[in-house]
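Customer escalation, tier 2.

The customer says the design service returned an amino acid string that "doesn't look like it belongs to this structure." They asked us to rerun it and document both sides in this ticket. The original structure tokens are below, unchanged.
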């Protein structure tokens, strides 16, 4: 029995140590390892800031298309300046087929496209006189617009587009609007209703008391060198 006590004491010590150390082993095993931070390559920030941001170009859903012809018979004339006119036109397929049916395809091909310029200054549409003068211009076969030198400021004109046949006959196709060239000098017309501001000052009378502008001077005050306040246009009453 005396030899058994040391053995029992040693077994008790081992059991005590085991009871203390065993619960701590899983915690030590499960302790997180030190995170390894991966080294990232340094970006060239200066280059990114300087370079402009480009966005992809979005294609239009529907491409815009402007046709060269609209299938409408028209002859339009405009005044470019006091000495020049500009005209553009379109002969539709219907007008072309009507000409071919009446005169034939050969006459269309051998005829010349001409533009007639009529001076109708001061004439009404009901006047028996068609124009004061007429200027005829031979055009290129496929021309659809033309600059016309009239050299006459402040005059009214209209145009005709037609075909000049080989035998000398003229076939009218289109007629234009009327247009008037602007003057090349200062207008001589005077508006009698306008007057100088000084004349308004001379005609003014003193307004009654209670008006916000108590002193709107008359003739004597204006001649004395006192100018009124609040007067800016002939519409003032």
């Amino acid at each position: 029995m005396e030899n058994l006590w040391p053995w029992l004491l040693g077994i008790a010590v081992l059991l005590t140590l085991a009871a203390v150390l065993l619960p701590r082993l899983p915690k030590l095993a499960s302790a997180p390892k030190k995170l390894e931070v991966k080294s990232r390559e340094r970006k060239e920030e200066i280059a990114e800031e300087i370079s402009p941001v480009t966005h992809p170009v979005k294609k239009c859903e529907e491409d815009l298309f402007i046709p060269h012809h609209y299938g409408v018979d028209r002859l339009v004339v405009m005044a470019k300046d006091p000495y020049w006119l500009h005209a553009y036109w379109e002969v539709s397929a219907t007008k072309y087929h009507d000409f071919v049916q009446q005169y034939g395809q050969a006459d269309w091909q051998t005829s010349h496209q001409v533009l007639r310029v009529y001076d109708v200054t001061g004439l009404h549409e009901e006047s028996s006189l068609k124009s004061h003068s007429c200027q005829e211009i031979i055009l290129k076969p496929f021309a659809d617009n033309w600059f016309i030198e009239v050299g006459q400021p402040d005059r009214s004109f209209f145009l005709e587009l037609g075909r000049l046949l080989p035998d000398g006959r003229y076939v009218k196709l289109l007629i234009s609007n009327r247009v008037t060239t602007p003057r090349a000098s200062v207008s001589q017309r005077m508006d009698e209703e306008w007057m100088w501001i000084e004349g308004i000052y001379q005609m003014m009378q003193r307004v009654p008391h209670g008006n916000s502008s108590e002193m709107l001077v008359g003739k004597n005050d204006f001649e004395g060198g006192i100018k009124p306040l609040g007067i800016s246009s002939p519409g003032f009453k």
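Tier 2 assessment: The sequence is consistent with the input. The chain has a mean pLDDT of 76. The beta strands are 74-81, 84-90, 112-119, 133-138, 145-149, 156-164, 170-175, 179-180. Sent an explanation to the customer and offered a walkthrough call.
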